[in-house]
Write a structure and sequence with these properties.
Blueprint (H helix, E strand, L loop, with lengths): L1 H20 L13 E2 L3 H16 L8 E9 L13 E8 L2 E6 L3 H4 L3 E7 H4 L9 H22 L27 H8 L7 H9 E2 L22 H10 L5
Parallel strand pairs: 1-6, 2-5
Antiparallel strand pairs: 2-3, 3-4
């Protein structure tokens, strides 16, 4: 009996050591900013990191799912070289991973997480590092930002977002499909310790001049009600909203 208990304790300690020494797929200390949010350089770097993270795990061949983020009304400086979309995609087809800068029809056709929002609305805060609590706070800050814009303009759906099956304006595009568990775990791995795909993307992001003098929250979300009138007009224009 004592030997069994001793073995169990040693096993627990061994597993603890393995967990502590587990190396993340992406070494955050080796990363440096490569480009603005939504730029080609940034999109390519995010795509490369996502492929590396997903290829480090065994994905079932039954997974057919995609992630696309399409940023509308991007600054023209980001759209050189014949670029048609600001954003990037991740696609898992029959368990095989691919990703790249831009948006392709094949990825958009798969069920998944498909987002389309004005570049200026999410660019700055996408450079903030955070875990689960930070994500929740960012969502609250963005909800207040949207409410302030709606109140200022006096109309709902200021970005003319598509209407979903429930009759509500939504930045999520069809076909919507839940995150496969294996994919979600892989891209979120280490997020509470500063790793994970979001924090990788944030670390790769350089500052954009549109936000230099804007009032922002601790998570870099613009504070619309604290902007000057000129700043409000400029910010809305950057979001594709004409007053």
């Amino acid at each position: 009996m004592p030997s069994v208990a001793l073995g169990g304790r040693f096993r627990q300690e061994f597993l603890k050591i393995l967990k502590e020494e587990k190396m993340p797929v992406i070494d955050m200390s080796a990363l440096s900013p490569v480009g603005e949010f939504g730029s080609r350089e940034w999109g390519e770097a995010c795509a490369a990191a996502s492929v590396k993270m997903l290829e480090a795990v065994e994905l079932p061949k039954t997974i057919n799912w995609a992630f696309t983020e399409d940023y509308t009304h991007p600054p023209q400086r980001l759209m050189g070289g014949g670029r048609t979309h600001s954003g990037y995609y991740i696609m898992v087809k029959n368990g095989k991973v691919s990703a790249a800068d831009g948006i392709i029809p094949e990825a958009r056709a798969l069920p998944g997480f498909h987002v389309q929002l004005p570049w200026a609305y999410i660019a700055n805060q996408s450079g903030a590092l955070y875990g689960k609590e930070g994500q929740l706070q960012r969502s609250k800050d963005e909800a207040l930002l949207m409410a302030s814009i709606v109140e200022y303009l006096g109309r709902d759906n200021p970005f003319n977002l598509p209407i979903n099956n429930e009759g509500k304006a939504s930045y999520m595009l069809e076909p919507i499909g839940p995150w496969p568990a294996e994919v979600g775990r892989a891209v979120a791995d280490g997020s509470e310790e500063g790793n994970g795909l979001h924090n990788i993307a944030a670390t790769l992001q350089t500052a954009s001049p549109e936000f230099v003098n804007l009032p922002v929250t601790s998570l870099r979300v613009p504070i619309f009600n604290e902007m000057t009138e000129d700043q409000k007009v400029s910010f809305l224009s950057a979001c594709g909203v004409q007053i």
